[in-house]
Amino acid sequence: MIINKQVGVFLNLVHNKFKQYVTEIFEGEGFNITPEQFLVMDTLWDEGVLSQQEIANIILKDKNSVVKLVDGLEERNLVRRVSNKRDRRQNLIEVTPYALKVKDKITALAMEAVNHVIEGINKKDLENFLIVLSKMGENLNKDINLLELAKKYPSNRQIKESA
Predict the structure, then answer these.
(1) Angle at 156 between CA 128 and CA 55, to 5 degrees
(2) How many domains, the chain?
(3) Are the C-beta atoms of 122 and 34 separated by less than 8 Å?
(4) In principle, which of 5, 64, 78, 133 could form an S-S bond with 73, CB 3.0–4.6 Å?
């Protein structure tokens, strides 16, 4: 197989298997949450109350996808929509007390999954892999720099609050 085809096939296979693996881990521990929903939750846990558009910008998804993710999280009592007092046309998304209660457990499960996936890969190879992935992302959209995004989030605000 030529390398260009391998890149596409491997990225797709690993992406799909990773999502399936994380979903199985969450479900095995009694959490009915998808990896994409976890990404929203993790963002809210780190950044605090956000608009759906702000979430979309951070996780690089379109607003309509975020609306569907938030709908699912709201059904699971993990988030709630509240009116923005400054702009009543906009909903803000905040985590529920239940979400705060399960945060550490769900986050630990997600980290356990990632640690399993990267097991046996040295730090330098992982750093190079992230550089390559970032370049691939940039090739798809010049406005997106994944390495810069990683430096920006979680925000300094959240880091200061937890210190």
Answers:
(1) 80
(2) 1
(3) no
(4) 78
Residue 131 zone, left/alpha/beta (φ > 0; ψ -120 to 50; rest): alpha
Res. 91: pLDDT tops 60: yes
Q: Cis omega before residue 35 (within 30°)?
A: no
Is the separation of the CB atoms in 106 and 31 below 8 Å?
A: yes
103 burial class (0-12, 13-18, 19+ CB within 10 angstroms)? middle
Distances (CA, A) of 150 to 12, 69, 89, 144, 156: 22, 22, 30, 11, 12
In a domain, 40, yes or no: yes
* Structural domain that includes position 63: 3-119
Contact status, residue 29 vs residue 61, Cβ threshold 8 Å? no
Partners of residue 133 on adjacent β-strands: none
CATH code of the domain in which 101 resides:
1.10.10.10
Q: How far apart are CA 2 and CA 144, in angstroms?
A: 28
Residue 105: how many other CB atoms lie within 10 Å? 12
- In the chain, the amino acid numbered 3 is I
